[in-house]
Amino acid sequence: MRKVILGLAITLDGYIEGPNGEYDWCFTDQDYGLKEFFKRIDAIFIGRKSYEIMQQQSDSSNGEAIPWMPVLTEYVFSKKLTSVKEGAVLISGDSIAEARRIKSQPGKDIWLFGGASLYDAFMKEGLVDELWVSVHPILLGNGKLLFREQSGRTRLRLLESITYETGLVSIRYSVENN
């Protein structure tokens, strides 16, 4: 079975974006393991807001929303959108059932990219198998937190940690209570 990997940038104080949705604090001076990560995946789960941000980024940078990202099957989870770009798949029904169905299909692992409501729901349902967080050495003090209040504990097992000379720390954990 494929793994769902929640992979994203986070500040040391737990934020995934600033108070105005900004992510200008993310380091982009090197790949920080993205090229290697992209070899593991062939699909991406993404919420509406993150999808729209990626589309805007892609439009303003000659089609490249994320540097070095290969062509992936994009599953866009949204109850508001009525269409998505060619090649993407809109999931507007039962997102949990659809994610389970896609996860059980043959293929490489799946990147759970965003947004916060989507990871919150997937974490609560035990759909996330791995966390890969790139902790940036900055304190924002305000913004959108990665994790909302949970009903219980989630045990993690360290798989890998890499410290870069910029101060960014990449950490991969297996989610143990799935």
Provide structural commentary:
- The two termini are 13 Å apart.
- This protein has one domain (4-12, 30-175): Dihydrofolate Reductase, subunit A.
- It has 178 residues and is of the alpha/beta class.
- The protein is globular, with a radius of gyration of 16 Å.
- The model has no long low-confidence stretch (mean pLDDT 89).
- Helices cover 21% and strands 31% of the residues.
- Strand 9 (156-163) and strand 10 form a beta hairpin.
- Strands 5-4-3-6-1-7-10-9 form an 8-stranded mixed sheet.
N-to-C series of helices and strands:
EEHEHEEHEHEEEE
Total DSSP E strands: 10
**End-to-end CA span:** 13 Å
- Average pLDDT across residues? 89
In total, the number of domains comes to 1
Low-confidence stretches: none
Fraction of residues in helices? 10-25%
Alpha-beta content class? alpha/beta
Question: What is the helix tally?
Answer: 4
Report the major sheet: 8 strands, mixed
Q: Quote the CATH topology.
A: Dihydrofolate Reductase, subunit A
CATH superfamily descriptor: Dihydrofolate Reductase, subunit A
Outline: globular
Assign the CATH architecture.
Answer: 3-Layer(aba) Sandwich
Rg value: 16 Å
CATH class: Alpha Beta
Strand order of the largest sheet: 5-4-3-6-1-7-10-9
